[in-house]
């Protein structure tokens, strides 16, 4: 008979958010067991797969506390400016609004290849004795009662803890089985992501260009080993056009890409595989249940229009870690309903506001017609002329607004 392996928490889902949470808890003396059916070897396979993330400055401060930032040295490209424009047919892009950091200020974010994030987290977890990584492994049974949570794995192993944390991503079977109520809808758009090498240096500038068919973003990456200038792209198209773009050869795809980018970065070539996925919204009405909490995309899935998806999940990590660490110091049961209610209050409103804001922007910039475009350009121009409003948006981009957990402020819990 297999013995039961116990820890302070169980984490279902071993992606970026789940592993970051385990590392944050271990850093403060709490043990965890991570269960995920994915093979970790495949997630850190050599080669750039085209996926990259903009890490907000506040999140980067958490990475510094947890020792992740040092492992990412040389792999991050600071975003020093963001240029936003409402696309005009025949004119490539407009440039009505720009956010530029002042000398000495923190960057608006740092672009990192997801593979480098996974490597840094894997190295950190390898040195964290309080983390047990069970990957690949599948859960065949889950029991939640007044005394705790027990998971049974496909090999018969039993895991037990006072709390189950679900970090499985958008299509979370454990969340659905636990009965969380999810509001969701499709945007009827597809996102195409990848990376290009380009003729001109990007100057640490990110470009967000809005077309009636959807937003188009170019995000600066570090130069590759051959010295080529690189940027990631996130290109949104109507769902009826997605399959057609996916079928284009590389040369035809790059030609269409350069039409949207205009002459911003000069000639381009693909340097990573292209990926396409449908865009949708989902939001859980509650992020806690009996001895169970949601973090990351299991709790909220937003449009990539503002690049805040991963950061929102890592803000969940910082808040939940603080709640649990402080609860443990007081000798509380980590699955206590009152303790979890604090996490719900802290993260529920922020998650909802960011989700609704990105949804609203998506709908606003998706309205076709010259009148709508003129209104959008007028709005962008108004923000451009109001320094206090620009500063507000820049603080939001950095993740420095609101009631920050200590990790996001760069301090220990």
TrEMBL record:
GO molecular function: FAD binding; monooxygenase activity; oxidoreductase activity, acting on paired donors, with incorporation or reduction of molecular oxygen
Names of the cofactor(s): FAD
Limits of the FAD-binding domain: 7-329
Flavoprotein found in the keyword field: yes
Organism superkingdom: Bacteria
PROSITE patterns from the UniProt entry: UBIH (PS01304)
Pfam families: FAD_binding_3
GO BP of this protein: ubiquinone biosynthetic process
Keyword ATP-binding on entry: no
InterPro entries: FAD-bd, FAD/NAD-bd_sf, Ubi_Hdrlase_CS, UbiH/COQ6, UbiH/COQ6_monooxygenase
Protein keywords: FAD, Flavoprotein, Monooxygenase, Oxidoreductase, Ubiquinone
GO cellular component: ubiquinone biosynthesis complex
Metabolic or biological pathway, per its Swiss-Prot or TrEMBL entry: Cofactor biosynthesis; ubiquinone biosynthesis
Protein family (similarity comment): Belongs to the UbiH/COQ6 family.
Record-given protein name: Ubiquinone biosynthesis protein UbiH
Source organism (scientific name): Sphingopyxis witflariensis
Origin organism lineage: Bacteria, Pseudomonadati, Pseudomonadota, Alphaproteobacteria, Sphingomonadales
